[in-house]
Structure formats: C-alpha cells, structure tokens
Write the structure tokens for this entry.
Amino acid sequence: MDLEFSHVTAKKKGFVLKDITFSVPEGFITGLVGENGAGKTTLFSLVMEEYARYEGDILAGGMVLAENRREILQKIGFISREQQFFQNFNGMQNADFLAGFYREFNRDCFIEKMKEFGVSFGTPLKGLSVGEFIKFQLAFALSHGSRLFLLDEATAGMDPVYKKDFFRLIHEMIAREDAAILMSTHIEEEVTRHMDYVVRISEGAIESVKEAGEWKP
Amino acid sequence: MEAVKAFDLEWKKQNSYYFLMYRFITILLTTLGICTMFIPIDKTEIVRTSINPLLLLIWGMHCHLAPYLTCVEEGKSISIYEKLKWMPVAKRRIQAVRREYMIKFCVKAGAAMFIVQQIGGILDGSWGIFNVLYPLWEVFFLFLVGIIDIYGK
Amino acid sequence: MKITINQNGTLAIYEQIVNQLRNAILTGELSPGEGMPSIRALASELEISVITTKRAYEELEKENLIRSVAGKGFYVCENNRDYLREKNYRLLENRMEELLKDCKGAGMSRKDVLSMVVELY
C-alpha cells in the first residue's frame, strides 16, 4: 500500500511542517533523512493519530487517510521506540489484547515471527531491550497483514549485528512488491545502501527527493 | 465479537486481580450508598441528605469504570485511550462501550435506589412525590459524573 | 557465485556489482544462457536497494552481457565465445597497459619486463 503526502502543512506543539509533498511507492524503501528535530517523527504522527490536524492531503492506497482511518490503519505497521503497547505485559499477551482490532490478525504467524526473530514470549515488554522491542513490533506488524511500514529511527543506537539482521528483514519484506516502507534515519551509511528513494527533510520542510544513485556515495 | 468488547474481555482476564480489587470496593461503596437511600429524603434539607448517597455511589461507579479507563505503568496512571491511540479503532467507539457499562450500572443502581427509597418513605409514613424524584436526580448526577469520567480522559 | 559489497570502498555499489558480474560472465563462471536472479531477489540477497540493483542490470544489458526476456527475467547473453573473449582481452589489455605504465615508471626496460613475464608465466 503506497503512501502519499500532498502539500501537507501542520503545526504541532510549536513545531511546523511546511508543504510536505512526496510519495512512498509500493515495492520500495523510502528513507526519510534529517537531523533530530527536523520533523520526521511529527510526520509519522500525522499518519497515525486520529485527530491529527493539517492542511493538504495524506493518501494511502489511493484512499484519503482522514476519511478512512480505521480501514487504512488495518494495513499499517508503525514501529517506533515511542510505540504504545502494554509494557507490563509480554509479547503474547499484547498480541492477545490487540488482535481483536485487526481483521487479519494471524496468531500463528505472530508466534512464528517472534521465534524467528528470537524475541522472548514470556518477558514483559518493559524487560526487553530496545532492539527486541522493535523486533516484537515488526512481528506484530507482519502478523496483521501490514502493507505499509513506518519505521521511526528503528536502528538508532543498535549494534552492527542487529542492524544486519534488521535490514535483512526489511529487504525480505520488500521483496513482495505490494509492501511499502518509509523509514526515518539520520545515518548516511544506511541511506546509500538500502534506500531506493531518499527524502531529505530539514526544519520542517523537504530539501530534496532523490532516487538511489542520484547522488555521490 | 466486536473489537472493543473483545479487548475488554481479554483485558479483564489478564488483569483479574486489579479488577477484583476494584469490584470489591465498588460493591462495598454501592451497597453502602443504596443502604443510605433507606433514609427518606428530608424536604427541608434536600442538599445535605442527598449528598452522602450520591458521593458513595459516584465513588462506587468510578471504581466500576476505572479498570476500563486506565492502566498503571511505572507507578503512573495512563489512560486506555492513550494506549490504544494507534489502533484501528475510533476513540469514540471505545468511549461508547464504556458509556454502555456506565449506563448499565446507573440503571441497576438507580432501580435499587428507587425501590429502597420508596420502602423507606412508606415505612416512615412520609412518602410523597419527592421520594420518587430523589432517586431520579441522584441517577442523573451519577450519569453526568460518569460521562465526565469517560469523556474527560 | 558470491557478490561482495564494500560499503566503504570508492566505487559506487552498483559499479561493484557490475564489475563482479561482468567478471563472472567473462571468465565463464556464469555460463552463456544461464538465468540470472531477478532484480528483487538479488537486491534482497545483497541487502541493497532495488533501484541500485536495477541500475547494475541495466548497465550489464547495455554492455550486451545480459539480456532481459519479457516475463521471464534476465539471462546471460549467449554471445559467441569470440565476442566474450574479445571483451575479456580488451579488459586485460587495459590492465596490461596500466601495469606496463607502472613498470616503466619503476624504471624497467622492455627486456626486463619480458624476462619477468617469461619467468612468471
């Protein structure tokens, strides 16, 4: 499911996003690059929040987000350190709580993914490392038929082994041509190797939108 | 089963101790509140006599709803709506289900209060229209507070 | 065959892929007519962007080393051995020129170079 921002302007907690326009096409990894505070997380919140206020349009899979939020959110996996989930409960319990909200939730798939990623089922989420928490979120997102993945600084501060593992997963996900990924990062290395498209954002405005290879490594 | 109710069911199951604790307090307070409704309303001191049962019942209802409205993490109380804000469900829907629970409570408590008050009034010999109105406005306030509790988070 | 990506090298990633695949084809490691992995499969395996992989394939296609068959994927061109040999020779010629330049720079005479070649071959 693709995502499209069209002239999105928003004021959130004193922060401003100006005239954001770009697409996140299916089958490709789009990087959202910018220094901390540039507006990356704010952009994600505009997609995820129920009462997000902004001018312009946000469309997913061709549908207007504001009018079809519940339908669209069925297919979005939002992965971030700031994610809500019930921290005092473990992965399996969280899945049991939230499965009912997703039409396509597949419990077996969740169990399989958790095992594959090596995340412990029985540890409460607050007891997991950040990396494991991210992997749990990926497992959860993959289990409810997500077709658009929003990853907010999912690799910041992670060790190289974790990153290698993480990107292997990302590329596997993208091998299916109907998935779209928007991932924010401020690490250049990740950009040149993994991103098909790069959107550079600075102080709330888009600096450039480029295709892989349109810049020097 | 509908999504929010399915969540509530699982939530109650996993938080059984929390729910039990609150349930105990609810029953205690509500029973006390209803018992005080035996005292027929004193038309000269309407406000004073109606406060006690009202406060007890409001507290009781709050405890009835509380485990559905908040969860505790790191010693802090967090709204359930906050926890579910990125789920494919409308906040209005979650609130509507809690309102359903609240109304059920109001109806049951209201009926009990009504019966008890009429008995009290009849036994006392002072039964009049106020004995009918009294439980009704108690329920009204109860409902109002419930709405604030649910929609205020 | 295994392709390795050096992220910190001076060559762009797509160039590294082109070089390694070209080498494999010229040396026969990838046989004429052999099927290539799809762009997405290779991108996924190497953990690089699809667009970069696509660029590499397009480059190889331009050099007539591989060709795309609609609906089926990419295949190593069944070029006559001569074409490949000539291409390979040309590359080797370039390398030889580079090497000879270095030898001259080091002060070796023609005779020195030739005797070295005889000794090493």
